[in-house]
TrEMBL record:
SMART domains from the UniProt entry: DUF4187, G_patch
Name this polypeptide is given: G patch domain-containing protein 11
Domain G-patch, residue spans: 76-126
Signal peptide: none
GO MF annotations, alphabetized: nucleic acid binding
Domain of life: Eukaryota
Length: 233
């Protein structure tokens, strides 16, 4: 019996479920006053959200109003225009000093510059000067580094040229030494030939009658062996 009561309780419909709280908005379905009011409120909220989303920003609105105001010419019935008219101003004329019949004044209004910070007048100019000074210092430092780099490059190029020059000198010296060795060998051959064949010594500058006289009278076969003899003579 208790089991049947629990089953009947579980099978009972929950009147607080989504099936009863959800609003059916299909055409032709009868709704209550509360449901209709709820639908109107939700629709109004959606419209307000769309309106806020599509509304331009305050800064854009201010800029548009400012541009529209500056684009309009000064009205003829304004006090400023009346004062200028009394002083001889006419539309199209420029404001300023005339020199040699020409006006150097302005015809367009002075451009409006908005300040995005709370600094005083002239602060931006000082900041620009400081910024320019820092830029000049930076450019000077860059220029100094560039010159130092160029000096290093020139020094490196000079060392490289000097190394090439030394290498060329070494090559020329080796060639000259080789030529000297070849000439010394040929001179030795010629000297030996003259001594053995003609009994003539080029260092003595004399021809002897025999090889025995050549060996006894000539100091030697080289210039070095004749050096002391030349000094004594």
């Amino acid at each position: 019996m208790a089991h049947d009561e629990n089953a009947s309780a579980s099978d009972a419909e929950d009147y607080m479920s989504d099936m009863y709280t959800a609003i059916d908005i299909r055409p032709g379905i009868v709704t209550t006053h509360t449901q209709t009011r709820r639908l109107k409120i939700e629709s109004k909220q959606v419209e307000n959200m769309e309106r806020l989303r599509n509304r331009p920003k305050i800064s854009e609105m201010e800029k548009k109003m400012r541009d529209d105001g500056l684009a309009k010419p000064v009205e003829a019935d304004s006090k400023g225009f009346l004062l200028l008219s009394k002083m001889g101003y006419k539309p199209g004329m420029s404001l300023g000093v005339e020199k040699e019949g020409r006006s150097e004044g302005i015809k367009e209004p002075i451009a409006l510059e908005l300040k995005s910070n709370r600094s005083g007048l002239g602060h931006d100019t000082e900041e620009d000067e400081r910024r320019k000074k820092r830029m000049r210092i930076y450019q000077a430092a860059v220029s100094a580094r560039a010159k130092a780099h160029e000096a290093l490059i020139d020094d490196f190029s000079e060392r490289k040229r000097w190394a090439v020059h030394l290498k060329q000198l070494s090559t020329d010296l080796q060639k000259s030494r080789k030529v000297c060795q070849e000439l010394d060998a040929r001179l030795s051959e010629i000297t030996d030939y003259l001594r053995s064949t003609h009994c003539y010594c080029i260092w003595c500058g004399a021809q002897y009658d025999s090889e025995e006289e050549l060996e006894n009278s000539c100091p030697g076969k080289t210039r070095i062996s004749h050096a002391g003899v030349d000094e004594d003579n």
